[in-house]
Amino acid sequence: MAALLNINKWDLNATDLFGSTALMWATKMKHDAIVKVLLEQVGIDPNIVDHLGRTPLSWATTSGYEGIVEMLLERRDVNPNSANLEGRTPLTRAAGIGSEGIVRMLLKRNDVNPNKADGDGRTPLSRAAGPQSWFQDSEEKYKRVVKILLERDDVNPDSADKSGRTPLS
User: How far is it, in rounded angstroms, from Cα 15 to Cα 136?
Assistant: First the structure.
């Protein structure tokens, strides 16, 4: 890939039929080395959204690819609050799948909004405290994410979703 990038002047931000860029595909396929090479290229835009409104950070978060999430978050130009068509941000996604490591990484950024509600009015805290934690085999990871979020002073524990449910309910 590095050799190909040196041979020709490529449009690194070109998209396919679904709005996916080379960086997005490398992220989806968990090709850490290719993601690294692409992120080193001048002019690469890590915030391009696909037809689902997802960025490479959103895809990496949803898939639990901690190494790629870390690489993306090292860039100051990555928008950690970019929401997909459902209104879910990377933090909402990470909390919703119980990914403690990714939640911690995202919360290290000062520009992450820990209270941003999705299209259903659910915040990262309400996603972590939600019904998916009812499954016995995964309950502990959701408890840890809830604890991480509640340890922050800027997380609103009483935010109600569109149905009026709070994280406690």
Answer: 41
